[in-house]
Amino acid sequence: MKKAGFIMIIGSLLLLGLFKFPLWNIMLGAPQYPEPLGLDIYITGIQGASEFDLQNIDGLNHYIGMKTIPKPEDMWEFSVFPKVIAGMVILGVLIGILGMTGKVSYKWFLGWFILMSILGILGMYDFHLWLVDYGSNLDPNAILKMVDDQGNPMKYDPPLIGHKVLLNFDAFSYPHTGAYMMFIGMILTVIAFFIGKKETKKI
Amino acid sequence: MKTTFKLIMLLLSATFLLSSCGNNNGKSSGSDGALRSSNAEKVYVAPGEHDEFYAFMSGGYSGNLTVYGLPSGRMFKEIPVFSQFPTSGYGYSEETVPMLNTSFGFVPWDDSHHPDISQTNGELDGRWIFINGNNTPRIARISLKTFETEEIIEVPNSAGNHSSSFVTENTEYVVAGTRFSIPVPQKDMPISEYKGNFKGALSFIKVDQETGRMAIKFQVLMPGFNYDLSHPGRNKSHGWFFFTTYNTEEANSLLEVNASQNDKDFIAAINWKKIEEYVNNGGGKIMPTNYAHNVYDEHSHSATSTMIKEVLTVDPTEIPGAVYLLPTPKSPHGCDVDPSGEYIIGNGKLSADLTIHSFTKMLDAIENKKFDGDAYGIPILNFEDILAGTVKSGGLGPLHTEFDDKGNAYTTFFISSEVVKWKVGTWEVIDRKPTYYSVGHLMIPGGNSRKPFGKYVVAMNKITKDRYLPTGPELEHSAQLYDITGDKMELIYDFPTHGEPHYAAAIPADLIKDNSQKIYRLDENKHPYAVTNQSDAKVTRNGNEVHISMSMIRSHFTPDNIEGIKVGDKVYFHITNLEQDFDVPHGFAMIGANTSEILVMPGQTKTILWEPKQVGVWPFYCTDFCSALHQEMQGYIRVSPKESNIDLSWSLDGE
């Protein structure tokens, strides 16, 4: 099961990309922002796509009463997520090594994948809750108090994934390099599972 | 162009036109319909698209520099240089008043003529653009990163700073020559003793290659002629500089007649490398003088003016081989050097022909000492020995020549109102096209360099008349754009230009557009009264001086309510724009201020003075429609009687 274990190790190591590259990216374009403003969401915090984007997004958001974009210390996620990812990398590499030496079965690879998927979905759900809160928990003294067709206060939560129109802004929200590396890594662990299964059967 | 000159030219043109034929100088008959539609495509820059070239046109009597796009002819910006500019507060704000300081005190206006873009190896490099102030002699340097004037140096011993501001091929020097000769140093003497006593100073201003900072390295004190225009040698003639002269008669009155008597005046050829070596070895004489050197710092957002008390002068007769005079017919105006550096063109403005001198022949004549006398000890070369050829143009009043990248030259003819295209080397005329009307300079992008971009020529005209919808007696000037990619020039566009553009310089947009700065960084703001965080805003009093350190961000001032100001105070508003977003300026205007508004760019601090004269509560507001809540961007100042004892107080956010 050498090959499968090796792929498992590579797959888990790809998660390390999340420490270097953004997990998610939200771009906000408008007629007067032909070069859109953008947020790069890392597991360790939120940064502007360009140097002054955070300040400029906060500046615009104060009109509609949104809170300022959280600093790393403002959200527990930014200290917990890195630990969870680091833990999963260590676990995955360990399972890979043990798999290579035949100490554990290929089924552990799938087990890691399922655990990672559950954590991932929980993470996405948490991210979604934050977006909703960020976009709808508005300052009652906001300068612009917009309502929708039904007369309910407008919500400005950017989409979790895809495109949404927020007043004059077009918001585009998509996974970024870190997430793609994670997805590839996770697929590799599934491949490792099937290869491991095949290698085991041959013996 | 001087009015007298314009007048005589008009009179001349009237006479000549009656007797001459062949110059189809009437109303534009235009081209046929099919051609016109393809010409429209050539100049059409679709909405949102960018022009291919930046063109920097001198403002003439506006004292400024305007930025246009080519081929569209759209104006992008007016850069204040030598004139107060209430739009931005330039020359009104405390920070920029020193920019207009001179040995004559504050001079709020000038006449800007000849912009020239910095070069490296004879090619445009897009670092800076220089321009001369003609009236109170000054040279300015403008950054092509911020598109703001960064430095102005006054030129002493000069008057009518006209044969300026042209750069050598590595921007070693920016050169400024005097049009009017004067007593050097200035003294009280009879004007009639001009001849033999006045001097013409040609100034070589060293440019620091890192910072662009200018310093006068030396002045060549030439005989008292009028030094009209100049251009640097390039390529093989790099190291030389050429100046046209007129009034070699040294007349001091009624020059239009008295300075037009000599059949030939001169082009002065200056071997500046030789003079540089001479002064580096301790040559020259330090002369006491007084001139201003004004420098603007983009981090403190402030200018300082320093008076300099001496200048190094050089007597050209003391440096063998430094200066020669090339006889050139008929009061030459433009002095132009082709991209190879071999040909020096003298545009004899009272002539029909152009005189072309050969640099190689000039060197040869110098080597063989083929002199035809001297003027005040400066050797005069023999006209026939140095002549490369003559362009028999058939036009009248040649003024200026530029070059393309295919071996052609283009010369303007003021009297016959046309541009004539001719072949360098064979001197044959290839084409001629009318201009509307009475063209002065013309400009090809990179036309004053080793590497011209021969796609367009822009003709800058002195007379507009009926070209556009009439706007009363005073009109903007008119420019024509010609496509010069084919054998024949094609007039493709006509657009008004602001002020009185004399010369212009253009550069491919790709060479500079990505360097154009978007904001000033707040974390680099070193202004002593800058507020980088609105909670730091404050008001301080020092006797009757009140300093208000105020911030602006969409869409409020901090503070916006101030009390404790008294009649007779001098109130300085130091205003910082806290934005760090591209194209979000805020303006500031105070009712009754005897200054101007200030327009403050993101990250910048500017200061304006207000001297309240009346008791009351007076508003101020943002003058730039900055945001949806721009109209809410306002504040009040309470002004109390002089003797009142109300303490200073001011609002911070939410208080």
Automatic annotation (TrEMBL), chain A:
Q: Return the protein name.
A: Uncharacterized protein
Which spans are transmembrane here? 7-27, 80-101, 108-131, 177-196
Q: Which UniProt keywords apply?
A: Membrane, Transmembrane, Transmembrane helix
UniProtKB/TrEMBL annotation, chain B:
Output the NCBIfam families linked to this UniProt entry: nitrous_NosZ_Gp
Q: Does the keyword DNA-binding feature in the UniProt annotation?
A: no
Q: Which keywords are on file for this protein?
A: Copper, Metal-binding, Oxidoreductase, Signal
GO CC, sorted alphabetically, is: cell envelope
The record's listing under InterPro entries reads:
Copper_CuA, Cupredoxin, N2O_reductase_N, Nitrous_oxide_Rdtase_Sec-dep, Nos_propeller, NosZ/Cyto_c_oxidase_sub2, WD40/YVTN_repeat-like_dom_sf
Q: Where primarily located?
A: other
Q: What is this protein called?
A: Sec-dependent nitrous-oxide reductase
Q: Which Gene Ontology terms cover its molecular function?
A: copper ion binding; nitrous-oxide reductase activity
Could you say which residues form the signal peptide? 1-22
A Pfam family matched by this chain, by name? Answer: nos_propeller
Enzyme class (EC, first level): oxidoreductase
Report the locations given in the UniProt record: Cell envelope
Q: Which domain of life is it from?
A: Bacteria
Native species: Aureibaculum marinum
Q: What EC designation does it have?
A: 1.7.2.4
